[in-house]
């Protein structure tokens, strides 16, 4: 109700149209190329610190899916405007659950229980314990997220949306209210105020005070003694 202009982009399909779909498709292709070739280049003809080979299909798949999940989690974090306990639990909790499941699937216990289903024993701890693997993961995250952050920053500065304008307006401090001088009111009343009250002018101009009183005014009948009393008074 306070910001009705926020509904205009949705009514005009500015957030879901052919142009937005093409942009999302191009971003997906770019991210797919990064998430494939960066881990591939990091795994190609690579040796571990103990001299053993690490360039195998399962290690490459583990590294690629780790990069993918972290990039998606960081992207969701960038798209989140209001953080709550539920958001924190599902975003960062999903990463914790992923690593817990990954290390469990490639553990010795799962191999002993389900030998045919989990033959790649020790792949997770051998791959994720290498510094060059984490360097490649960090590089993949940076190359996938940095263009998105840069594009959104330039768009907010050059062509802000109604939401960006409202967020920027809320960040600004409110202008200081002008100071008003308090006028002291006196409780004393001057004679000028009384001179403007209703006086006896209306009564004088009406002539009611000049009319003689009728002897019938009080009793409604004529009393002969009334004139006697007047003469005695005179």
How would you describe the overall organization of this protein?
- With 234 residues, the chain is mostly helical.
- Helices cover 61% and strands 0% of the residues.
- The chain contains eleven helices and no strands.
- The chain has helices at 8-11, 18-43, 57-79, 85-105, 108-113, 123-127, 131-158, 162-171, 191-195, 201-206, 225-233.
- The model is unreliable at 191-196 and 226-234 (pLDDT under 50).
Please summarize what this structure is:
With 234 residues, the protein is mainly α.
Percent of residues in beta strands: under 5%
Q: Could you estimate the helical fraction of the residues in percent?
A: 55-70%
Shape: elongated
In whole angstroms, how far apart are the ends? 88 Å
Contiguous runs where pLDDT drops below 50 for at least 5 residues? 191-196, 226-234
What's the total helix number?
11
Q: How would a crystallographer describe the biggest sheet? A: none
From the alpha carbons, calculate the radius of gyration and give it in angstroms. 46 Å
**Residue-averaged pLDDT, rounded?**
77
Count of DSSP E strands? Answer: 0
Helix/strand class:
mainly alpha
Sequence-ordered SSE layout with sheet pairings:
Blueprint: H1 8-11, H2 18-43, H3 57-79, H4 85-105, H5 108-113, H6 123-127, H7 131-158, H8 162-171, H9 191-195, H10 201-206, H11 225-233
Question: What descriptive keywords fit this protein?
Answer:
234 residues, mainly alpha, disordered C terminus, metal-binding
